[in-house]
Amino acid sequence: MRIACSSTPEGNVYRFYRTDLDVTAALKPIVPFLLASQVDVIVGREADDPELLMRVGPIQGSDEETLLSVMGRFVTPCPSAAAA
Would you kindly state where each structural domain of the chain is located, as residue ranges? Predict the structure, then answer.
């Protein structure tokens, strides 16, 4: 799995992409977090991004720290909103 990060003024947005067949095992650790958090989660592709599996965010603070502690190994570096 690959997770791309983009920065917005409201917080970072994480886009999840399937890169192997075992994406279910990779996502399983964050399911309880996603169910308990107040973060926007959109599952499925978007018209401009047909490879997209799931989008999470905008997210910041302790919710983002929790997400990164579990999924950080899959995340590409996130540019800052000021640079955009």
Answer: 2-79
Residues 20 and 24: their CA atoms lie apart, in Å, by: 10
Contacts of residue 16, Cβ cutoff 8 Å, sequence gap at least 6: 1, 2, 3, 27, 52, 53, 54, 55, 56
> pTM of the entire structure?
0.82
Class of domain 2-79 (CATH, top level): alpha beta
The whole-number pLDDT of residue 30 equals 86
Give the C-alpha separation, 58 to 64, whole Å.
Answer: 9
CA distances for 31 relative to 24, 28, 59, angstroms: 10, 6, 16
Please report which helix (H) or strand (E) contains residue 2, including its range.
strand 2-8
Residue 16 identity (one-letter amino acid) = F
